[in-house]
Amino acid sequence: MTLKNNKFIITYGLDNKENEVIDKISNSKNFSSHKIIEKSMAGMKLKDIIDESTNIIKAVKIPDEKIILFNNLTESELSSSMKEIKSGFLTSPIFAVVTQTSVEWTFDYLINHLMQEREWFKKQQQQKKK
């Protein structure tokens, strides 16, 4: 599986206002329309979500988190998009980039992996302060 070369943003758990911020960024940078992951899609592989597969997957329970995934953005586009998102959101979401590895994971597995990474980084920051 190769990643789609289209530049776009994938979101989960955002409210309407936050999704509007993502749409504005996508439009201003000429990205493809942003994709919104619904809870019912949690058991799907990321590649199927990207390909807009209509496979029916059994429902999987996932945490209420705000997730923003970036597909095929340059470093500059990624940096500026993250900066704009942070300024337009009240709470900071979890950011990640779609990779050759993560594209094969189910979304519920990915979200749990991202939450574990976030906790690891928080612990590292706390240890540095000591």
TrEMBL record:
Taxonomic superkingdom: Bacteria
InterPro entries: UCP014543
Pfam families for the chain: DUF3783 (PF12646)
Protein known as: Conserved protein
